[in-house]
Amino acid sequence: MQVKPIIINRQWNGKLFLENRFIYTDLKDCSFKWKTVNTNFGNKKEIVSGNGILKSPQAKPGEVVMVEINCLDRLQNADLFLFTATDHHGNELYTWSWPVLQPWE
Fold first, then answer.
1. Angle subtended at Cα 41 by Cα 36 and Cα 46, rounded to the nearest 5 degrees
2. Which of 39, 42, 54, 104 has its CA 20 to 30 A from that of 90?
3. Which of 17, 57, 54, 19 has the alpha carbon at shortest distance from 35?
4. How many domains does the chain have?
5. The model's pTM
C-alpha cells in the first residue's frame, strides 16, 4: 500500500489518497492511525499534539481511495504529521512522515 504524494501544512484539507498495492488483500482488512507531533527542536522529548485511528476504507487491490483526517486544529501546534499503516496480521507496514512547517513558511 502507498500514500500518494502530498504536501501537508497547517492549511491542509485532511485528504490522503491511499493506493492498495496488495495482490489479494482489501484495505478494509488493514488499520491506519495518525499522529501530530511537536518535536521541540533541541530537546530530546517530542510532544504528541494529536492522534487518532481511521476507519479502514474499502479498496480492492489496485484501487486508490481517499480518506479524510480531521486534524486541522492539531496541526497548528505540530512540526510533523505521521501516518501509520498496519497489515491484516498486525505488522506495521510503514509510517510516513511529513513536515508541517514548509521551508517557505
1. 40
2. 39
3. 54
4. 1
5. 0.91
